């Protein structure tokens, strides 16, 4: 069984509507702390990013932030992190987070969350990254994206086997469990 000692979390810098997103973010952070899995994320105190970090820290977990110079300059750095680093650009931040993590998870979020996750998935497809990936599907948030993936497959732009490269779970504990047994997709991306 693959070992996951660190997990990169991509998530919204906003909270979303209602309490479900906050609750799930806090549950993921607490679960990471319980399991001794270090959280690696964008380093801010904002939105779901801050909620997840706060919960991991409250549970005694390790949380490493990777924040850009610009966001740090705006006062966005979470003040209670176990450790952090400041990088020049978002591109540097994404590369550093992916390079440090044994697995990657996206919580609900906006275009930045989607872009970070999609880039990592692309790198996995090309073999430049070998990291299990998952979506925390709070209240069915990611179902339209999953439907779009199915549409890519139906239209001949993605091999069907690549649908299995992404673990989709609503429960943080089950998501981590599934990531630990996830097998790399070896089917070439070219049809």
Short description:
With 191 residues, the protein is an alpha/beta fold. 43% of the residues lie in helices and 17% in strands.
Into which percent range does the helicity of residues fall?
A: 40-55%
**Taking strands numbered 1, 2, ... along the chain, how are they ordered across the largest sheet?**
4-3-2-1-5-6-7
Count the beta strands: 7
The total count of helices amounts to 7
Structural class: alpha/beta
How many angstroms separate the termini?
A: 30 Å
Poorly predicted runs of 5 or more residues: none
β-sheet strand percentage = 15-25%
Question: What are the secondary-structure elements, in order, as H or E?
Answer: EHEHEHEHEHEHEH
Largest sheet: 7 strands, parallel
- What is the rounded Rg? 16 Å
Q: Outline, from the CA principal axes?
A: globular
Mean pLDDT: 95
Describe the structure.
The protein has 191 residues and is α/β, with parallel strands linked by helices. Helices cover 43% and strands 17% of the residues. The chain has 7 helices and 7 strands; from the N terminus they run βαβαβαβαβαβαβα. It has helices spanning 20-35, 47-58, 69-73, 90-100, 111-126, 143-154, 172-181, and strands spanning 6-10, 38-41, 63-68, 83-87, 103-106, 133-136, 166-169. Strands 4-3-2-1-5-6-7 form a 7-stranded parallel sheet, sandwiched between helices. Helix 2 links the parallel strand 2 (38-41) and strand 3. Helix 1 (20-35) packs parallel to helix 2. It is globular and about 45 Å long. The chain starts with 5 loop residues before the first strand and ends in a 10-residue tail after the last helix. The model has no long low-confidence stretch (mean pLDDT 95).
């Amino acid at each position: 069984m693959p070992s996951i000692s660190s997990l990169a979390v991509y998530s919204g810098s906003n909270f979303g509507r209602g309490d479900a997103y906050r609750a799930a973010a806090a549950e993921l952070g607490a679960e990471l702390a319980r399991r001794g899995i270090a959280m690696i994320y964008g380093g801010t105190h904002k939105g779901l990013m801050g909620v997840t970090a706060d919960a991991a820290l409250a549970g005694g977990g390790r949380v490493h932030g990777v924040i850009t110079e610009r966001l740090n300059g705006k006062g966005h750095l979470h003040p209670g992190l176990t450790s952090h680093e400041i990088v020049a650009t978002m591109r540097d931040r994404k590369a550093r987070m992916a390079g440090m993590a044994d697995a990657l998870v996206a919580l609900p979020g906006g275009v930045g969350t989607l872009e970070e996750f999609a880039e990592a998935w692309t790198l996995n497809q090309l073999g430049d990254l070998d990291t299990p990936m998952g979506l925390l599907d709070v209240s069915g948030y990611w179902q339209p994206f999953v439907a779009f993936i199915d549409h890519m497959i139906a239209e001949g732009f993605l091999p069907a086997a690549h649908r299995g490269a992404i673990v989709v779970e609503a429960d943080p504990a089950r998501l981590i469990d599934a990531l630990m047994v996830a097998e790399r997709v070896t089917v070439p991306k070219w049809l």
